[in-house]
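worker-3 :: picked Ig-like domain-containing protein
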Amino acid sequence: MDQFYCNSTYCFSGQSQEISPSQPLIVVAGDDVVLPCQLEPPVDAVQMTIEWGKPDLNPGFVFARHNGQELQTDQNTAYKGRVSLSINKLKHGDVSLKLSKVKVSDSGRYRCYIPQQSKEYFVELLVGASSQPGVNLAGLDEASSGVMLDCKSAGWYPEPEVIWMDSEGNLLSAGPTETLRGPDDLYTVSSRVTVEKRHNNNFTCRVQQRNTNQTRETHIYVPVNNVFDLFIHSFHVKVCKTVLF
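worker-3 :: tokens ->
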């Protein structure tokens, strides 16, 4: 009996077996991705019925092909014009689905089903999004005689964390991060830290999402030795932005 192909990341054979949630296929919003599904042995699948679906959708069909023809009647409109199979690869049993210009809403579990084989193959997709944080001077903290710095970054998915560092990479103690989730499911995070005279004049706000390996950071240089001089020098601040991949 034919079985599905196993590789180092995704390995399934038999009935209705799922990918581990700890091993999703990770991609950045706007990129293209191929959802893998390979028959073994590599039989010709050009005339086979092929169904790709996403169980949490209604209708749930992402892509369907029958007797060599693509079916669009019950296809979910969110995927129209963004999904395709390679005919040349179908000849070798590769029924992997290419999904173009992925969106955050594309995240989730996908099902590859070949009725003739009575086999299911599940792939978990995680789409990440990020943006550059902005840092600015928020004012003087009279209680500590320090200066407050604000950091804000919008358009993240999944929810990220915010950390502050000095020029030597030491973590700074900041207030709790404020998190807002918009109607587009994207997160906006804000954080405030108070820096004092004992600190160096170089500071970094880093926003990161460990699951998707996304990191963005902004460096701010305060060009005075005495924090009180900030207000005398009219908040002259040099900001340098860096993107890490």
